[in-house]
Amino acid sequence: MPRGVYIRTKPYSLEYIEQQRLSHLGKRLSAQTKAKIKASLLIYYSDPENRAKISQAMKGKRTRPLGYHHSERTKIKIGISNRKPKPSCSAFLTGRKLPTSHKHNLSLAHSTPEYKERYSGENSWSWRGGISRLPYSFDFNQELKLRIKERDNYTCQLCQAREVNPFYSYFYHHIHHIDYNKSNSDGINLIELCSSCNAKVNHNRDYWQVYLTTYQNSRDFSRLPKTGQQLLNNKYKSVARRVNECQNSMPPL
Q1: Where are the beta strands (DSSP E) in the chain?
Q2: Left (φ > 0), alpha (ψ -120 to 50) or beta: where does 26 sit?
Q3: What pLDDT digit, counting tens, does each position of 138-171 carry?
Q4: Residues 6+ apart with CB under 8 A from 106
Q5: Which residues of 188-213 are buried (b: 16+ CB within 10 A; e: fewer)?
Q6: Integer Cα distance of 86 and 176 in angstroms
Q7: Are residues 142 and 232 in contact, defined by beta-carbon separation less than 8 angstroms?
Q8: Full-model pTM
Q9: Comparing C-alpha atoms, which of 146, 220, 138 is closest to residue 185?
Q10: Low-confidence residues of the chain: pLDDT under 50
């Protein structure tokens, strides 16, 4: 009979497969055989072509049939393994402090335009389809708020209180949606209110909606800033100016 490598064209019968399975039951492989099998599998799975073939063959297939359940013995093994204490990242970092230079380098790396472009928006691992600002619209941003505050002269339009320090929550002014529709960011629908008045207009909404709509229709919006970027850049200067005005108006102790 000629020697060589023969490729089997017919599948094995079920009887033959069952016979081979029964012939190996209860037999234990030697350590030398296990080592040979392990070395052979490592060589096979380390080849990128073989890994690509396996990935292509397994696409759309289940690793286990539908309705598969672990045996009671396997469940006991999994339970024992899960109850063992495992080292976690938090336990490893407990009590460890990063050097100041390392923190500074991390801060610089995360603030670069390249990093923000790479890991922001749709490229972020926490992207959920652009729902981060809901129920507000994407137009309702810090720039628009500064434009509205500049239009309203940093003054509450109900009690005429000035916004002294926007970094202190007690004196911080809010931009209120008159029709209570947070997705409507039209300029005539937005008005500056202090914290007290902003809480007050959330009660008896029908009355306040009519009242503020009538008030807005009687105003002149010609002084609405065209762009908010300049206001955004001069934010801290405006805050310092208003704080100085407040301090100068206070009576001496």
Answers
A1: 174-177, 190-193
A2: left
A3: 888 888 888 888 888 888 988 888 887 655 555 6
A4: 98
A5: ebbbbbbeebbeebeeeeeebeeebe
A6: 51
A7: yes
A8: 0.43
A9: 138
A10: 1, 226-233, 235-236, 239, 253
